[in-house]
Amino acid sequence: MEPVRRWLVREGEVGYHHGDLRAALILAGIELIAEKGIAGLSVAEAARRTGVSTAAPYRHFANRNAFLLAVATEAGRIMGDQLEAALEAVRERSADPLDQLEAIAETYVRFMITHRAGFDLVFVRELQESEDQALRDAGRRVIDLMLAPTIEVSPDMLRALELNEEIWTSAHGYAALCLTGLFRAEDVLASAPRAARRLGQAASGRL
């Protein structure tokens, strides 16, 4: 079993079920992006990994772009589920929105270093003109989940949006440096939440 597939199955995410070829192909696509980046997404390779002919995926996806759309939508759903779970876990033990900012940063970094993609997959350039509602809903959900704690930190919407952007770009930067091999995963998983807390403290005047 491929590393990402093992992780997804362990986390209760998409798994292979006999007869559900579409879901299996999407899972293979997520694995390919984790290993090779978005440029390495191949419908033929996804077919090989699921043990079907190279023609079989086209019963479910008209072309590579349609396949990419399905993979991006599923990745957005997974990311949204993980953000929601992380935030709920924090809220059970703390009412401090700064703790939620830490959870957002850690979850984002973990997702990106596991899948080699974050917002750059959910909002990948090839799909920017897409009118697909499922993809839009997945992206909107991720944004809303990330934004909610920043509004608690700063009720001023403009400042909350700025804080959200600062935390996202900080977490993304840490994850990118990890993927290049400059930082260790355990280091960025600790540093990104600390940076998010400091940004939240500055925005709320608590520094």
From TrEMBL:
PROSITE patterns assigned to the protein according to its UniProt record, in alphabetical order: HTH_TETR_2
**Which keywords annotate this record?**
DNA-binding, Transcription, Transcription regulation
Q: Does the record carry Manganese as a key word?
A: no
Residues annotated as DNA-binding are: 42-61
The superkingdom listed in its UniProt entry is Bacteria
Annotated GO MF terms? DNA-binding transcription factor activity; transcription cis-regulatory region binding
Per the UniProt entry, the signal peptide is none
> Boundaries of each HTH tetR-type domain copy?
19-79
Task: Output the Pfam families linked to this UniProt entry.
Answer: TetR_C_33, TetR_N
What name appears for this protein in its UniProt entry?
Answer: Putative TetR family transcriptional regulator
Name the source organism. Microlunatus phosphovorus (strain ATCC 700054 / DSM 10555 / JCM 9379 / NBRC 101784 / NCIMB 13414 / VKM Ac-1990 / NM-1)
Question: What lineage, starting at the top, does this entry show?
Answer: Bacteria, Bacillati, Actinomycetota, Actinomycetes, Propionibacteriales
